[in-house]
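Quick one: structure tokens for this chain, please?
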Amino acid sequence: MKTSLTKSVLRYLLVVLLASSPFSAWARVPPKPPVFVLVPATWQGGWYWQQVSARLRATGAVVYTPSLSGLAEHQHTLNAAIN
């Protein structure tokens, strides 16, 4: 009786240990998609990266293509505070 109870307790502890292991938690969490920030050069805006960003997004990546202040379509925002 004592042996079977000990085996049952050990089995239970083993199941609890395996279920709470970091490996089982990692297996359930889907991987996060890569994130890209594509910064345009002078005289260009975020539109410059349209073809590249479309290809990256097609693979599931998150892509940001900001237009910088004072450049391209934001040239009207240029002021002395922007260096």
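The first strand starts at residue 35 and ends at 37.
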